[in-house]
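note to self: dont lose this again. the chain is below, predicted strucutre after it. 202 aa total, dont forget to put it in the shared folder this time
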Amino acid sequence: MRNSFVEPQDRSAYPFPLQATHSVLHVPLENSTGAVIFVGMGCFWGAERIFWQHPGVIATSVGYAGGTFGHPFYEEVCTGKTGHTEAVRVNYDPALVGDDEIIRFFFENHDPTQGNRQGNDIGSQYRSALYFTTEAQHESALRIKMAYESELKSRGFGEITTEIAPAPKYYFAEEYHQQYLHKVPNGYCGIGGTGVSCPLPT
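---
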């Protein structure tokens, strides 16, 4: 059991086995097709579930984005000292669901104004983040953020704190985290939006 944090050496490979197939969608986790975007919405268990349920999504997985070293353990990320973000990798079919809809869905289903937390989950690993893989996603994220921030402010919320950046290195989380709320249906889910609709800018 790794309870205390000791700055680890950079790992060159996963120190645990990787789950090969999505437990719900039955597609490969590592080599899924389609467009790819990475989102941080607090605890990644609930965030993954709402995305695998979204029409047009091909695959989802949970992992650790960015950070100061490779292939971390969950307990290391939970210290908040590693720089990683708890993230969901979303593969989607652009012919069935566009960038704008995926990004609108991301903003609307958590509170993007909370900084380094999401509800009771506190720490930089729980920050709101959107990591794009195409310039079209980047432009869409900036447009939707501006429109949604205006809507949120009119309802008494503060500025959006979402980190919008090119996708960093992504490390798959341990197998028990993948599709966790399918494996543990009554498990913890911290996902929740603001109750404010996110408009799509015209």
